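The instructor's notes for this session suggest beginning with a concrete chain rather than abstract definitions. Hand out the sequence below and ask the class to guess, before any prediction is shown, which regions might be ordered.
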Amino acid sequence: MRDGGRLATITADQPAAERDITMRAVQVAPDGRRLGRLVQFLAQGLLTVSVDDRFPLERAGAALARARYGAHGSATVLRTGAPG
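After discussion, reveal the predicted structure:
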């Protein structure tokens, strides 16, 4: 995020005031139909997701820390079940 930019987020973590970043909160609601369309877009290669790191469920705290402080625009994945 460049200084003076705009940020839409689902967290309350605010950037440093001296960076002059405008922040807007976003509320997320479940929407199965929309999620299904996104899955189709992924399968068709129309949408891609850059993954930064993957964590097993037992390391959920580390996954959250990574997502909050180090992913830099890439997804942090929390795995459930067997690795793979």
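Then share the key points. The beta strands are 6-9, 22-25, 51-56, 75-79. The mean pLDDT is 84.
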